[in-house]
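look at this record:
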Amino acid sequence: MPRVQSIQMRVLLWGWGVLIAGLALAFWRYSAALDGETARDFEHETLGRLETVHWLLDRDGPFKEPRDRQDFLHALAGNMGMRITLIEGGRVVADTSVPFGDLGRLDDHSARPEVVASQSGEVGESTRHSVTLNRDMIYMAKKVPGRNGEPDRVLRLAAPVSQVRMQLQRMRWALLAAMVPLLLGSGVLLWLLSRTITSGIAQFTEAAQAIGDGDYRRKILFYPAAEFQPLAEAINRMAKKIKKNVKVIENQRGELWAMFEGMSEGVMVLDTGGRILHVNPALSRIFPRAQEFIGRAPLEATMSLEIQNIVDSLMAGESSERVSRQIELKDRHCAEMTVVPFRDHKYRPRVILIFHDTSEQRRVERVLRDFVANASHQLRTPLTSIRGYAETLLDAPPKEEAKRREFLEIIHANAVHMAKVIGGMFALAKSEREGKRPGELAASVPQAVGHAVKNAGFAAQDKDIELIVDAFPKDLPKAAADPDGLLQIADSILDNAIKYSPEHTTVRIAAGTDGQNVLLTFADEGPGIDPDNQTRIFERFFRADGNGVDSTGSAGLGLAICRHIARNYGGEVWVESPTNVDAGTGSIFTVRLPMA
């Protein structure tokens, strides 16, 4: 970066430059005027001396001898400091700078310019180099008329040019000596002026820097001159407006960032190079490692070539319309993706990807379809049976009392089954609607088991099944569940164990902990469950024997409801069967729930 001079130095140099130029012009003009004035003064002075010498010659002449005249003129020249020459007919008859004996060797002076000019009655003037004296001289000559029959003569005075030049040099030096203080004084004034300006500029600079650093309270209250007032007021207004605008921007940025972080939809923001710039927490639920791929391509975070192709197309400017797609992700996840292109402040293409996780919605839709299909199947068979036997009783009732009673019992059994199907459907819908319970809920395991044992007492007594409850640990904690939900789980599992257990057997109930969870087990001596069906028995309407209705009117929803409720509380239900490997009998249902 080239070096830039300060404004103080510029003002000083330019001011001095203009002043020096002005003084130089004035000096030149004054010198020219001085030369002319000095020449005129010298001319007048020399002319006066010429007249004086003429008068003295007239007064003291005529001289008896030419030597006397030479001596007289020599004395005058010594007093005047000038050379005096007397020329007669071009011949030098007297010269104060040449010995009297050498006058005859001098050249003819009739052709000299000043001599020629004096012949017309005027004062002749000339400046040239004198061979006799070997220096430049200024000559002034005047014609002197002769007296008493003497011939006309030319009286000439001469002075060295150096004498005039020395006088001019002294005057010039005096002028230069007067200019030096002027230059120094003007330099000091220019320095003070430039310092005042630079101090004002420094104040403006500090204020601008403070405003740039965020100190919007900084104001310019003092300025060096009235010309700075509009600038100071403009900076003060700018600071006030910037403070207001920055406050609005910060508020909007905070609001946008809160929205960005709190959105339930996953958002991925790409930079101008098509690389990931920002992701919000919701996106990590769809792509768990998205945060690790900031600065990299979307393909690396999503492992979806379809997404990358859409981004590349929009970044290349092939389209400016938003794109919406349903995409399938791994682990049976799916999402509705919306890709929105836009331009930044430099009109460069950028992209925002918005992902709405539709996995749960798809799962619910799938479950609802299965639920409707299973419910239709479960209700269609008993309804057909009820309708058939009811029509038989109405159109052609059997004459035997036992036969009519048999038909009515079949109708009753199917009605009980339908009631259980509908009741199970309501219970399952309620468990799905309630969702997960807060961790502050607590349910007593012994109390729930006690109620469940009482509820199953008549069914167990009909089959002569003994319900054995092992002693619970004294420090058994409560489960993080709703008491009604825990009772529903215990009722369903206990009812299932009694229903499939042979007569004259036992069902044993026990409880304990694994350090973090409460464990509740139900062990029966039933026929056991095939390994292929141990997970399917928790599906809705699933029955291992494939029948829609059994003798008890079971709907196949009890275990499904148990697992769903347990999972809502953050727990789980599973089965281990057979417990008697040699006989292939017995099952243990285990319920695990977090401790309250």
